[in-house]
Amino acid sequence: MKITKLKITLDDNTLVDISFDIKSSLALVGQSGSGKSLTLKALLGMLPNSMECELMVDGDFELKAGDTLSFVPQNPFTALSPLTKIKKQFFVPQSRAEELFAQVGLDKELLDRFAPELSGGQLQRVVIAMALESEPELMLLDEPTTALDPKTRVMILDLLRDLSKKLGFKILFVTHDMNSAKSLCENICVIKNGKVVESGEMHRVLDRPKEVYTQTLIEANFANREFRL
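The structure assignment produced for this chain is given below.
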């Protein structure tokens, strides 16, 4: 699917003006304040009323959160209620929740647990299972491995890649971690100040970046901190 136009303005000031093509899996990367989060919020319909948004999609479906579109947030520890059993936080019958748990490699017994009783990796799998409830065509990922240790991070990225291939949904991965982006996505889109400065196949951009800005991002230690100029 193609986002042929995404323009976000505030008081006549253009904050984001980009377009990109999600062929299968696309990493959207850039420094802090580049427009990554605004892009996610626009696609999810979560921009504040003070901002205006023009969104044009060239595809065979409309972007609609909870239907063709799903979302995996950054921190699984805050994404779930700590006072409600996991099974009560699904919007599908328990039999379907059990099927989703099986897809993400979780024992159905965990449905009767509370979120604080689960590890970070288990919680992220729960959130991914919830994102699969509506059988989405596009899954938005907002730094879903940031709060995880390196070993668990690799496991979650492998899971997402396998699920995408098996279930046929596309991925838009918003991240500052170039290693994770390379591991999960086939293509990359680099944005700066709300504009696309470079895009293409992941291996091509990482091996032969055309822009100094992109080279700086690649060289930065994204695994440990958000890059800031």
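Interim note for the steering committee: The first helix runs from residue 36 to 44. The beta strands are 2-10, 13-21, 25-29, 51-58, 69-72, 138-142, 170-174, 187-192, 195-201.
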